[in-house]
Amino acid sequence: MNTLADTPAVETKPLLVARDGAIVTITFNRPEKLNAFTIDVWRDLGTAFLELSEDDDVRCIVMRGAGEKAFSPGNDISEFETSRSNTQQATAYGQVMRRTIEAIANCRHPVIAQIHGICVGGGLEIASLADIRICGTSSRFGVPIKNLGLVMSYTELAPLIRLVGPAVALDVLLEGTIFGADEALRLGVVTRVVADDQVANEVAATVKRVAAGAPLVARWHKQFIRKIASGENLSDAERNEAFACFDTEDFRIGYQAFLKKETPKFTGR
Fold first, then answer.
1. pTM of the complete model
2. CA separation for the pair 87, 93 (Å, rounded)
3. d(Cα 251, Cα 241) in Å, to the nearest integer?
4. Class of domain 8-211 (CATH, top level)
């Protein structure tokens, strides 16, 4: 996994993973290309999420693009001639994307998208996988791939449909228009819109609130909501899992702190 350090050699990597205690920030670091994704970025992002999801010490993950011009415009079109010029190449590329999309979707920890500027195409796909999506008033969204003669695969479509529903997803894809932050909020593409110069502060405040909660509870809630959204029938064992929290140390810490009017300090156990 890439690790952010105060050295130019590390900072030039296309994907940076910085850790501050229990908080991890993943930065798409290709500002000269508005943080467009290459196959290497897709692959490294998937690896990072697979490793972080298994780390019980993580409480929140933030995804963002380098700078404030763009979250990401999606895939780097200049790579198409060499990496996606035919069905065989595109299938192999799609397998890398699928691994990453599923890794983010199945991540046990809360994920926040910090969106500055452009968030279209594959960038919107990635943002759609976050649990909370915060953008600035000048952010722009859309999936104009009809103009490239491309379709979104089933794996790519799934997060967008879960987010906005099939009717809105189809509207976005058929028209291919670029829309602003207010429309994104109305459609459910983003969770919150703030002034451009307040995006980082709002994300930091949100991270603080999320990380202050019991981490086991956050993981359970993500798991339960995914299960309910899948439409699958719940087994008795799955229903009973909702009561496992009563045997955790965090539950005892939480209710005792409440009775004492103190701030709980959860351990994740």
1. 0.91
2. 10
3. 14
4. alpha beta
